[in-house]
Fold these 3 entries.
Entry 1:
Amino acid sequence: MELKLPSPVLLTVIIILGLVSINGCNCKIVQFIFGDSLSDVGNNNRLPRSLAKANLPWYGIDFGKGLPNGRFCNGRTVADIIGDEMGLPRPPPFLDPSLTEDMVLENGVNYASGGGGILNETGTYFIQRFSLYKQIELFQGTQELVRKKIGREAADKFFRESRYVVALGSNDFINNFLMPVYSDSWKYNDEGFVAYLTETLQAQLQLLHRLGARQLMVFGLGPMGCIPLQRVLSSSGDCQDRANKLAVSFNEAVSSMLNELSGNLLNATFKFGDAYDVVNDVISNPYKYGFNNSDSPCCSFGNIRPALTCIPASTLCTDRSKYVFWDEYHPTDKANEIVASELIKKFGFLRVNQTEAPSPSPVPGPALAPAPEG
Ligand SMILES: *[C@@H]1O[C@H](CO)[C@@H](O)[C@H](O)[C@H]1NC(C)=O
Ligand SMILES: *[C@@H]1O[C@H](CO)[C@@H](O)[C@H](O)[C@H]1NC(C)=O
Ligand SMILES: *[C@@H]1O[C@H](CO)[C@@H](O)[C@H](O)[C@H]1NC(C)=O
Ligand SMILES: *[C@@H]1O[C@H](CO)[C@@H](O)[C@H](O)[C@H]1NC(C)=O
């Protein structure tokens, strides 16, 4: 009887293929996004008790089919626009019920949550939200699943080559420090609070580095004292000077912390960028940038200000591309475009070349001119 044994060559091929499929990865470069409502793409809509949701019209009116999708905007977030420019897929929200390991490998994950802050205690007013520590905890869970799926070595490589975005901080001021109901507002003075926030963020970024993050961007704060919600706090309707000064100090402190950190962390490129000056100029000279209004929300409810959120009964401005602000807190798609292009300049990055990824996989060419559609 003749035994048909596989030839040694074939056996080797089979073993190698086997190893590759167990321990290898056709990994693309994807993004993991940590943030607040400026980057949320649907997590809060799935937090049953959250009071900060973008689940009603007219949110999303200029995105895809024009339906609410979880973004606190009429169109795209800054992270959407930057990711598109880099040629990276838009990551689904962590709470997307259809999220699988394959989707993570293909698109990354977005953990951003409206109301979330750098500090755990920020935004308690919204009842339910993911603070940055919680988002990192969820990311660790994602890492565990990916390791089970493709093996530790391939997973380590995948997470090392991924891109990371960390964009929080405004809620730590607007929905914490600047509100007297929060203990942080009387425990710290302005300088002390910025230092506390920066130290906390530093520990969080070091943790992300230990978890494998190597290429990370931190978005700084804009002139948050000029969001419509802050303006209505003063009888004159002017920007809140103290809030703006806090944003500037935060940006300065985080920028120098990141410079130092990026030099100390092995193999890490951690970058800081803010669009404070540009947005400040847009707000002071809206016409110069093609806007017609930079002090009130496009979506508003008659004279009732501040309206907490844009709702179906609200009225919309006639031309959304002429407004800097979409609702009381959040910029429009058009304003986000300006922020994104400023950040792209500051970060100085190039398009991600997917063919340089761990192993080539067919990657659909990203559209050169990203449309507002999802
Ligand atoms: C913040 O929350 C995380 C859980 O999400 C917890 O592990 C951590 O100890 C908390 N940190 C502080 C300072 O309360
Ligand atoms: C840094 O990169 C080198 C070369 O790729 C590698 O050997 C080393 O393990 C890396 N260190 C860390 C902490 O990532
Ligand atoms: C700008 O806004 C004013 C009212 O604030 C309006 O009368 C004018 O038509 C607007 N211009 C454009 C180009 O939208
Ligand atoms: C991407 O990288 C591959 C391999 O290094 C190279 O052949 C290709 O020209 C690059 N493509 C672009 C657009 O830079």
Note: Confidence is low (pLDDT under 50) at residues 13-22, 358-374.
Entry 2:
Amino acid sequence: MSFSENLEQRWLLGIPQMDDTHREFAQLVDGFAEIDANDRDAFTERYQQLFRHTAEHFQNEDRLMCDSGFFATAMHKGEHERVLGEMARMGGYLQRGQVKMVRDYVLEHLPGWFEQHAATMDSALAGHLKNRNVNVNELTQPQTAQE
Ligand SMILES: [Fe+2]
Ligand SMILES: [Fe+2]
């Protein structure tokens, strides 16, 4: 089962803004299976797209947490920072030609990380937004995550 299919079946959280972003993330990750790892330029371009999308994904959630008074904001933001730092380090490996390693990271590490994150921190945030009846669209203007 692809990451996208798994997401549809198991990891939708009921907050459309978050779910739409997560769908885009899963589609971007799944797309890496189709990229020729020998085509370093194409691979790098896709990796940069994934990085920008993830940075916006995290920024939007960070803003939702701050604006709605989420109790675990610092911990959740810290995890976003950690993962973005890891992705930036992978970008450095990519520049040094380690395409295979970065491909494995995207296809084999990120889906598992996401499932863990969705099951814990993101679902806690979604639950908080639902419990408080937060109108997400009123609270924050999401940035367009897809380029
Ligand atoms: Fe998320
Ligand atoms: Fe998150």
Note: The mean pLDDT is 93.
Entry 3:
Amino acid sequence: MSSRKRGMAHAGRRTSEDGVESSISEAAAVLAKCQHAIAFTGAGISVESGIPDFRSPGGLWERFDPVEYAHISTFLRDPERSWEMFLAVEQIIEEAAANAAHRALAELEREGVLGAVVTQNIDGLHQAAGSTVVHEFHGTHAELHCVDCGRRYGRERVLETIPPHCSCGQALKPAVVLFGEAIPAGVSEAAFSDADACDGLLVVGTSALVFPAAQIPYQVAGREKPVIVVDREPTPLTREVSCLYLRGTAGEILPRLVTEIMAKRAGGETPSVASGGFGGQEQVPG
Ligand SMILES: [Zn+2]
């Protein structure tokens, strides 16, 4: 694997202030030239919003064995049991607010760098921060879904009874993808289509271990487009995918990355933007 050596070098990069700064500048130079990059996010971006990674120590999976509680077969057999976990998730999400990292990605969309966010999170915080094109790979906790007839409902239905019921009589579940369930076809199509067309990928807070979502960075790298990883610790991606690796928390790194991208664009280092595209003020007279 030709990219391995380079990836290892990044994984071993020191986290001194200088090292991080030079990486941010390097990543900003790459992203400043992008016009329809995508961001691929996971649990790590929402940790600073107070939503612990379910898989981390003290996370939700320590209280609720996912094999039992988060499997579609459990919900179908005993929806009340699954709702013990759904309510715990709801409480965590209700108390959370978008953080600086979510807002930075929304800013990159407005700036015409990002065309979409593909997220594995179900917390809705990208939309809360202002991102408008968000593919929620694992669904959303903001709505309820009937596995029988397909009707969807707002959260207020939860207040009635636990478990809440569809007008067809079936127990409702949050519109999240449980273990044993397929990714909603429209969402995965949109996400993979964007991964096929993007001019760069910014991976934030995910070690990309859960397939099929985890295919996305490999798909983009396979097209030889830049893959930039922001994570607190090295991940398989920083070792196996040719990329720039920015080590740190998303809330610390992303706002600085946005500032540098804006500075580079304002400095006229970006190519002119196609007509009908994004942010005309960045066009270079030519
Ligand atoms: Zn129904």
Note: The pocket of zinc ion is lined by residues 146, 148-149, 151, 166, 168, 170 (CB under 6 Å).
